[in-house]
Fold this protein.
Amino acid sequence: MGCFADAEHIPLFAVGGYVRDRLLGLPLKKEIDFTVIGDAVSFSQKLAGHLGVRSPVIFERFGTAMVPYRGFRLDFVTARKEAYQEDSRKPHVLPAGLEADLLRRDFTVNAMAAGLNSGNYGELIDLFGGVDDLKAKVLRTPLEPERTFSEDPLRILRAIRFAAQLEFAIDKQTREALERMVDRLKIISQERITEELFKLLSTKQPSIGLRLLYLTGVMEVILPEISRLSGVEQIGPHHHKDVFEHTLQVVDQIALLTDDPAMRLAALMHDIAKPRTKKFVAGTGWTFHGHEDLGSRMMKPISRRLKLSETDCLKLGKIVALHMRPINLTHEGVTDSAVRRLIVDADEDLEDLLTLCRADITSSKPNKVKRYLEKFELLRTRIAEVIEKDNLRAFQSPVRGEEIMAVCNITPGPLVGKIKTALEDAILDGRVPNEHDAVLAYLHEIKSQFIGLKATHETSSSAAGNPPRGKRSR
């Protein structure tokens, strides 16, 4: 890269996260940022031809370009300074030198550069004390922090995410300015906010960032439902544990089990409705009856607000709705029927549901946790046995709609679905084995019940002046 820049007489520098991570000894990421003293777009186009890769993705307005190369994303930007309007985070860009380009960056640890030309190869340019801040493990802004966050409020979320990702503290003045600028987040698109939230959830210990979001007031702006989980109330000897702190523990525990950010979001959301279902019952204490059902319903508008995919929206709703079921099935006397219903209701999300439920086992008493985990592993074994025994891997009635209509002499309509549900219920309850001939025989036994319903429906329809289904006049 440096040799090519020499041939083009272009000063080229590696900047930002690549330099920071090299100094920290962290693994190399697949994205590298470069600053070009000159025309970055023209340079990237020539470089792409030199490397024999497809044309770069160009953002002419900002003087930036991206070149994909051997699994790497190489981002080139013309050295620049920026001016912002109050109602937008999109800057007006002007060409500038390297110092002005580094000064516009978010934090001093990201405002360092390394020379790549033959005359300065490997030379570190650190104009704002980035190395010292790396050693001190602190995040600080090159400019006045209030200006930094006002100009681009997304940096508020980036500060908290970097604090979690690098396990750094936020400098006192920087944090105070961040808290004053929280309302500026309202000019940021939801897609960018959600992207930063997922990056934060992808860190090694997400609770660090989540707690910072809460303490700085950012959570109240981006996810007020999570802020409302905080607080412990007591009536007499009865108190309920802080749901917010419990939630953070669950998120950290699921982070040890899966890298899937959607599952970490499910852990964050699983008790979302507890504040709205909290009730004190004399003689019992605090209860949260129905919080899983209400929480599932809450997930739809929250998912839409976060701009999640329909797939993630449905999955989150399902997992929140079912998250109490597995632990309730660890009690003695639970039937195979109840286990079957869990398997079928969870369907392809069963393993993810069980992962969340395992992470949800928290207590300050190690013996209690050990006892619950032992019961939970027994449930997992039982689930596997039921799946194998009853062939429930892709459960549905082996007698399908066409066969139901032929046996019962009915036409397509809601009645077919009712009969199919009755057959599936019989299988799940263990009254009929999950085998075609057995289910077909059971259909012959019960069909008269449903044919009677059909006749009643047709009679009432005729009395009301409506032709029976299947005989509607044309």
Q: What stands out?
A: The longest strand covers residues 72-78.
